[in-house]
Each structure stands twice: as structure tokens, then as C-alpha cells.
Amino acid sequence: MRLPIGINEQSAEPLYHQIEVQLRALIVSGQLAEGTLLPSIRELAQTVKCSVITVKRVYSDLESEGLLRTRQGTGTYVAKVGEQERDRHRLTAVVEALDQAVTTGKRNQCSEEEMIELFNEAIQKHYRQGGKTS
Amino acid sequence: MSDGQADQAIQFKGIEQRKPNFKLGPITLDIPKGFITAIVGPNGSGKSTLFRMVLDLEKPQEGTVHVLDHRIGSGDDAPVKQRIGYLPEESLLHDDKIKAFEKARFNSYWYRNWDVNRYQELLLGLQVNDNLPLGKMSKGMRRKCEFALALAHAPDLLLLDEPSSGLDPLAWKAMIEMLHRYMEHGDRTILMTSHIVEEVKRLADYIVFMAQGRVLGVYEKDELFSSWFTFFISGEGLSAQTASTMPGQCGVESIGGHSFRITTSKALQADQWCVAEGITIISKQALELDEIMSTLLQQDGISKRVHEARGNSR
């Protein structure tokens, strides 16, 4: 199975973190159902073009968060994600993306007012006009 | 110490070799089991010599080589060699006259684990015909045959010296995929050399830099690539002197006004430093493998000269 995970080599964010955020989102959003067998470490490393060391770290981090479980000899599976867990993780990706946006704004010398204005514009675009978002 | 040994496929300990025009070592280097390690470095830095030492084709004057928990040159090396696949950089001249399938038959006699089905499968995957004398084949075709010959006995340790030289892009891709599939079997190890940046990026887990017979450093690949960046920064009244205090700085260049282009080996710290100093990051760019290598070589040259200068002043 090929996971929809992409990396940005130009980002200073560590690779393992980039992959972790995306894989976590896939699990928490339910796109990867409970019991799904994930690609082997070597396989995922090959598709993402990173080293197995990085993927090992991602799998073990998410395992200790309770999102994955490894069965000796058979592979790594998506674990059962509880409601509470889901809620807790649901927003982390969003918070991160907003943080990224603000950082970019600061880099381009945006003032606080400008940022808020831009944020409101985006809200307007996605939530109010046309109404539907997916 | 002994528990560490089981995790290493190859251990070079204090290797030294002096030839009339070349000195190798001292080198102490561990190649971890279950991973792909790529040695990169300029021509003539001693990479192939290390490979030959693993197979006892060359002996170090000092130091020891342990391969798969066996000390090379102590007693019978044959059982360990059964578990190694070797693709040398240069084709063997005395193979020129024989056909590839004859060479395969020869190998099948010596390698207990020789798997003829596997050999056929590899040939098929690389789309090559083995009914030709090796010397009559094109360079790429011969490389493919030799690649299949090196892999057909499912070795635990694979030594690949410039594996892709002469291969066309399609064959190259097939080879990369075969090597990934080969590694799926968790505890196998590849030690390789390559001058092709993309190949190292696609395959390696660890990267070893070598130059002039010495190891400059061993790095985990992803960590290496995420550490080396070029920053373009600017700030009110920013001076070259301040710019040069960026963590991991390996070169500052003024690009006009209060803007500078800085290469750093500590991207994360450099990033935080910019924030703390109130310096604007205009943009940043990850370094390619060859750029990292040339910077490391430069640094090594500088530190060596400083070292020598200090030595002389005493």
C-alpha cells in the first residue's frame, strides 16, 4: 500500500517530524482504519526517500502514542483510536499549520493587524462564501 | 563490547596500509547490520581498498577486520565468504572469454546457497541475456550480469563498488528496486560506494565520507541532509562579523547591503539563532550531497593546515 505522504526537503523541520505529522493525521482522521497493515519500514522509507532509521523512529513514536501496534514478525498495524484520543490529536495538525502560516507572515514583515485581516479573509473564503467545505 | 559486535556486519579496527604513493588509515569504522551504508569521497580516497580488505584480497599492515563476527585472515575464511556478495568496480579480465551462464554455473559450484531460480529472476528483471561471452557484452549489459551473479546466492552482506556505472536509467531503477527488495529481509547489510548523488539518496541509511585514505565522518543520512543548509539572511546593521557567529557556520558571503549568504551544518540551531538575534531569514536551501562533501573537504583541509602549522611551531 502506498501512503499519501510527501516530504519537503527544503524545510528545516526534521524529516521524522514531517512524516509523523502526516501519518498521525491519516490515522486520527480515520482515513487509515483500525487494523490496517502499514507498509514495512524499508518500503515506506523507499517511497518517501528517507532512511529506515527515520521511519523506525516514526513508527515507534506513534506506537508509544498508542496509534500503532507492532506484531512481531507480521508488521505494524493501525491501533484502535478512542474518541478522546481522536479529539486530542484532531487539532494538533491544525495548530501546526496555523503556526506555520504566522511564521511565514512574520518572515514577510506582516503586522499583527494584517495577519488577523488575512486570517479573517481566509475564514470568509472557506466557511461563509459558497458555504460548503470538505 | 561483545553485545555491540553482533549489531555490526563489518568492523575495521585501526586499519593502516602504506604504499609507495598512498597511505590509508588509520581507520576505525563500524558498518551496522541491517542497514545500507554508502561510502562517498573523491577518487583515490581508499574506498575500494577497504572493500578488498573485507575479502582478504588485500591485507592491512596494521589493525584487524571483522566480518560477520569472523576475523578475516584467521583460519578458514570460506564460510564467511559464502555469505558475501561482491560486485567489484572493475570487471575481471580473466572472465572476458567465458559466457555469463558459464560463470553462473561456476558460481553455483562454489556457493552452497546458489539459487538458479533467483538468478534467472534477476536476469529477467534486468532484461539481459546471459548467452554471450562477458567480454563481448556492452559495459551496461555486463554490469547487469555481474549484478545478478553477485546477488543470486542471497548473501547476508553485499559489497557493491560503484554498482550502477554504465547502466541506463531504466536498468538503474530496476537495480534500486531489487536492492530495496533484497533489504526487506531485515538483517541483511549493504556496503556500497557511489559517485551518484541520487543513488546515495535513494539507498543509503548511513553515509561515510572518505578522503585521502581517511574517514572524515559517519552520518545518518536524513540527519545529515536536514543539518546542512544555506541561509540568506539580512538585518538592520548586520555585520559580517555578527553573521559569522551563526551556529555551524562554514562560510559567509556578502550579497550586498546588510545581507549575507551563510552555509551552516546546524540548520536548526541557526534558525533559532536568527530568531533570537532578530535577523530576518530571506530564504534557505538544503545542500546537496556533493556540496556537503566539498565543504567538509575544505574544512578538513583548513584544520589539517592549522594542525600542521601548530606542529611546526613547536
TrEMBL record, chain A:
User: What are the protein's UniProt keywords?
Assistant: DNA-binding, Transcription, Transcription regulation
For this protein, the record's SUPFAM superfamilies field holds: Winged helix' DNA-binding domain
Citing just one GO molecular function, the answer is: DNA binding
Domain of life assignment: Bacteria
Please state every residue range assigned to the domain named HTH gntR-type: 13-81
This chain's protein is named GntR family transcriptional regulator
Source organism per entry reads Paenibacillus paeoniae
The taxonomic lineage of its organism, from the top, reads:
Bacteria, Bacillati, Bacillota, Bacilli, Bacillales
TrEMBL record, chain B:
Keyword set for this entry? ATP-binding, Nucleotide-binding, Transport
Give the organism the record lists.
Answer: Paenibacillus paeoniae
Question: Mind telling me which CDD domains this protein's record contains?
Answer: ABC_DR_subfamily_A
Q: Which residues form the ABC transporter domain?
A: 5-237
* Name this protein carries in UniProt: ABC transporter ATP-binding protein
> What highest taxon heads this organism's lineage?
Bacteria
Q: Which SUPFAM superfamilies match?
A: P-loop containing nucleoside triphosphate hydrolases
Which InterPro entries does this UniProt record tie to the protein? Answer: AAA+_ATPase (IPR003593), ABC_transporter-like_ATP-bd (IPR003439), ABC_Transporter_VariousFunc (IPR051782), P-loop_NTPase (IPR027417)
Matching entries from PANTHER family are given as: ABC TRANSPORTER ATP-BINDING COMPONENT, ABC TRANSPORTER ATP-BINDING PROTEIN ALBC-RELATED
UniProt-recorded Gene Ontology molecular function terms: ATP binding; ATP hydrolysis activity
